[in-house]
Structures are given as C-alpha cells and as structure tokens.
Design goal:
Number of strands: 8
CATH superfamily: 2,3-Dihydroxybiphenyl 1,2-Dioxygenase, domain 1
Helix content: 10-25%
Bound molecules: (S)-Methylmalonyl-Coenzyme A
Distance between the termini: 30 Å
Strand order of the largest sheet: 2-3-4-1-5-8-7-6
CATH topology: 2,3-Dihydroxybiphenyl 1,2-Dioxygenase, domain 1
Length: 144
Amino acid sequence: MDSLPAVGLLRVDHVGIAVADLDEALAFYERAFGLRCVHQETNEDQGVREAMVAAEPDGTGARIQLLAPLRPDSAIAKFLNRNGPGLQQLAYTVRNLDETSAALRARGLRLLYDEPRRGTAGARINFVHPKDAGGVLVELVEPV
Ligand code: MC0
C-alpha cells in the first residue's frame, strides 16, 4: 500500500438515516434527542428531501442527515422497502474529491459515479459501493 496515493479523509461529515417522513422524523429527533435542524433542502438528482440535524446550534461537528424519498424508484425508497428506516450511509469530508476518488480506485474500490455529483449545499459527492466497503455505503463529500 506504501506506493499508493493518500486517500485524504478529513473527518466524519455526517451519518445518513433513511426515514419515511421527513417532518415526522425531524419532530422525533428534536423531542427524543434534543437535536436541532441546521439545514434542509430537496435534492432532485438524488431523489431525496433531506434535513441535517445537530447537537450544536451552529451545525459544527458531525451531523445526522435525515433522508426521505421523493420518488418510489429512489435509492432511499429502495432502502426503506428492503430494510425499513435506519442507518443508510456514512459520509466523510474530503479535501479533494478527485484525488480521493483516484486513490480509492487505485485500491480497487468501486465508486458509484464516473464523475462527482451535487450533494448537500452544493458539495461535490460520490459514493463507494457498500460491497467494497465492508457492507457500509460510504459517501465522500467535498464541501463548497
Ligand atoms: C444496498 N446495499 C447496501 C445499501 N444499499 N448495503 C449497505 N448500505 C446500503 N445503503 C446492499 C444490498 O443489500 C445488496 O446486498 C447490495 O448492496 C446491492 O444491492 P442492489 O439491489 O444492487 O442495490 P440498490 O439498487 O439498492 O442500490 C444500492 C446503491 C444505491 C448503494 C447502489 O443505494 C445507490 O446508488 N446509492 C447512492 C446514492 C444514495 O444513496 N442516495 C441517497 C442519499 P445483497 O447482499 O443483498 O446483494 S443522497 C445523499 O446522501 C446526498 C443528498 C448528500 O449527502 O449530499
């Protein structure tokens, strides 16, 4: 592995949880855990309504991403049908997504997209296939 380029993960960015109904989930996370919504958006490309919740009101630190399906053929709808609500992904912040993607491909891991797509708040994102990552869907996030 010594001659391979560095992967360049910086920190855990967020953990993604599939939910059937975003508003109900937001109410639950606030009531049960005291977490506050720090960001909300719809991502048509990914077929999700999403909300970031966090313990810190300024949204610093790792966040929890609640993901609700927009369409029955979306990744989150498929996940809910198969597993029900629960942990769907682990996302890392990276400094440079192109370099991280090249480093992971050099290690033989499959990325889901040939080119980065648009994620939360305009971030560039890609995913490592869960079958190449110990059964965990890994998202790579290069923030704006
Ligand atoms: C599927 N598998 C998973 C999994 N989803 N394993 C762990 N975690 C998951 N989330 C497993 C299945 O159980 C199956 O295992 C195998 O992977 C392949 O199943 P498949 O039927 O081919 O898989 P699909 O059609 O369900 O697709 C899985 C795949 C898909 C990961 C390719 O979910 C995908 O494209 N995800 C990336 C996009 C995404 O998740 N978007 C929503 C979040 P067996 O053993 O049965 O073969 S959007 C987001 O995150 C954005 C907004 C952001 O943060 O910026």
